[in-house]
Structure formats: C-alpha cells, structure tokens
Amino acid sequence: MSLLVIFLAIVALVLLVSWAKVNPFLAFLIVSIGAGLALGIGPDKVIASVQKGMGDTMGSLIIIICLGAMLGKLIATSGAAQKIADVLVQAGGEKNIQWALVVAGIIVGIPLFYGIGFVLVVPLIFSIAYKYKINAVYIGLPMLSALSVTHGFLPPHPSPTALVKQFHADLGLTFIYGFIIAVPTIILAGPLYARTLKHINPQPLKTFRAPQIPQNQLPGTFISFFSALLPVILLMAGTAYPFLHVQNAMLNRVAAFITDGSTVMLISLITATFTVGISMGKKMADLSAIYVDALKDIAVILLIIAGSGAFKQVLVDSGISTQIAGQIQSLNIPPLIMGWLIAAIIRISLGSSTVAGLTAAAIVAPTVIQYHVNPNLMVLSIGAGSLVLSHVNDSGFWLYKEYFNLSIKDTFRSWSAMETLVAICGLGGVLLLNLVV
C-alpha cells in the first residue's frame, strides 16, 4: 500500500507540472503534504516534516548555488566567456573549430548556470558559423552537449550540488569523477555524433546573433581563464590536500575552510569581481545589478530544490524509504542503474532534469548506505538519467528548436538524440568507474 502511495504521488507530481501547468515548487509542496498524510504522518506533524526537509536541503546549498549563479553571470556579461571562445578557436585553427568550441563549452559551462550558458554560447556559435561558413548544428551541438553534461554532472550546478548534499557525497570527488566521465561522454555525444548531422541545414535567425564585444574591451586571456576556472582549481586542491598528510592542525583547519564549497564560491566571486569587473571599469553598482539578475535567473530552481527536500523528508519520516530500499533489493537491479532508471522515467514524463534528479534521489537515498553504494557515483548516475530524451515537454527542446530554426523532426534527430546519448554514455562511465573506485 505504501509503495502505491509513492507511485501515485509521483504520477500526481507529473500531472500537476506537465498537464495542469502548476509551478513545480507548489506541485512538490502539495504532493509532499498529500503523501505525508496518506503515509500516516499526522496532520500536526506533516507540515513540520515539510519545513525540516526544506530547511535541511537549502541550508548549505543556497550559498553555493547563489554565488555560482552570480559568478556565471559575471563571466558572461564581462566578455570573459567570449574571450575564452575566441582564444580557443584561434589556437585550434579553422579545421578544429568544432573541438575548440567543445573545450570552450566545458570551460564556460562549469561556472555558468545552464540557462545563462545556452543564451550566451548560441550567439557565439552563430557568429562563428557565419564567419567561417560552417553548419551551425555541426559546430553548435557539440558545444551544447558540453553545457548539458556540466549542468547534469558537475558541481557547482544546482542539481548535482543538491544531490551531493542528499547523498552526503564529497563535492571535490564528485567533480573529479564527473569530469572523468564527462570528457568521453561529450566527445561521443558531441563532435562524433554531430558528424552524422551534416545533412541538417539550420537557418538560425539573425535576431539571435548578439553583437560581439569589441576585442579591446574584453578581459585578458589569463584573467578570463583564471576567473572562470578558479572554483575548479580550489575544489581540486581541496580534494588533493588530504593526500599531502600535513600534520599541522591549524593549517589543516584553514585548508578545510578555504576548500569548503561555500568558501570556494565566495573566494571565486570576490576574485572575479575585481579581475573581470572593477579592473575592467565596471562600477560596484553595475556589478550588484548583474548579481541581482543572476539571482532572478535561479529563483525558481532554488524553490524546486527546496520542494524536493520536503518530499524527501516526508519519505524519511514516514519510514517508507526503508521499504523502498528493500523493494529495490528484491528487484535485483543494481542501485546505480535503478537511480538512473528512476531519474530517466521522471525526466521523460516531466521534462525537468532538476525535478527528475531530485525526486529520484529522494526515492533511492536509503540504498546508498544500506548497500554501500559510492555516493559520488550515485550523484553522477542520477545526473545522467535526468538528462535522457529531452522532448516537447522540456523548455530546452524548444530553446534549441527556435534558436536554430529547425523542424520538430530535425530537433529530435539532433537535440533529443544528443541528450539521450549523454545519458547513456554517462551511465556507462559510472558503471566502469564503479569497477575501480
């Protein structure tokens, strides 16, 4: 009976968001309360359970996600991302433009929130396509695959960061494992798959060809790369530090403070504020306006994450999470595959990768401890599953279709297929990595 309640709760969530067009946060709230009551949590306790779940989930995430969004917005508006793309294209030459844009997509995709990244890189793609007379899908889809993979796999993006919290994984290790899986995934789903799409002839609208910032107004090469990659440098340093076996207790405490996810993002934002902000002639008032816009961009995502925390807590407080773990074991499906599968089903039904990932995490969380699953790999498995088969119920599908001015058929053939390849390759990478870590 309890499992039936969870099934009906997920169906209700899907219908509320996709059919009734209810805001995902409200849908999570309604479903969480309804599921809690149906699972036997008293009316006097269900709201407390919801509030606890929201508070516990957002407590440590809100700093990382908000600061990450601010940093990404600054990297975009300052011209640092344009500079990175220009340098890589010039270094690789015209024959390797596709690969240069993939590398640029990975670099700018790490700090950029996905929505910002998409709107930023598409005009860059169109400008390069027009300049060199190259098919925009052929060079653009690989770059967008890099954005998609970083969005689904790598902290400090909202979904993987929230999953790290839910599974008590390590932020730095998750990033390193995610990057190891991301590179071959992007190569297979991006440049290699794009070679089969040369027959697609996009007609990108000139409206979306944003004016380029003049070269003399762009930040320098080193500053652009350093500002975008500083979070990566600090997170990797934090992961490597324990292997130095430093015996000084004070130094260890300082290192732990500096390499904490929240501190990393704060240091990175403060640094970028000076390197690509104030030093480029921007006033603090202008930078503050950029940061406010960044928070507006992620407000809905923050609420969705909070709502997913409420749903998770209801499952925990009702005791159903333990039953779910037992049922998963009886199905004889490895937890890593089960996490991917649940996220994929919800993603296909609902469209939102964030909701799919967080809902799947709430369901399979008990298996991580009970069956000794590597929590970092579970984050990546669910992240991969949450990207599968983007179609007509996903806003990203329509963004791509309209920007590239493609038919529905060609959008499925390129965008939807690319996202599915990312999901499948991601799962394969997780399973291979699970054999050695």
TrEMBL record:
One of the record's GO cellular component terms: plasma membrane
Pfam families: GntP_permease
GO molecular function terms attached to this record: gluconate transmembrane transporter activity
Keywords: Cell membrane, Membrane, Transmembrane, Transmembrane helix, Transport
Keyword Membrane: yes
Topological relation to the membrane, as annotated: Multi-pass membrane protein
Subcellular location: Cell membrane
Family: Belongs to the GntP permease family.
Protein name: Gluconate transporter
Taxonomy of the source species: Bacteria, Pseudomonadati, Bacteroidota, Sphingobacteriia, Sphingobacteriales
